[in-house]
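Give me the fold.
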Amino acid sequence: MAQLITILVLVFSAWWLYRRFVSDARKLAEKSRRAEKERQTGAIGTLVKDPVTGEYRLKREGE
């Protein structure tokens, strides 16, 4: 029984680490894609519209 629990814990841990790796890889790819697009257009940053105030601001890291 202890072996089964150990195997389940290892499998769950491996799955969790894989999902985290994929998530981080997607974030990095999106960040580099955005940076490349900004470099091509000569932009300093990306503007987003605040839905509450209607004002534009620079897109923050992690948005």
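The chain has a mean pLDDT of 91.
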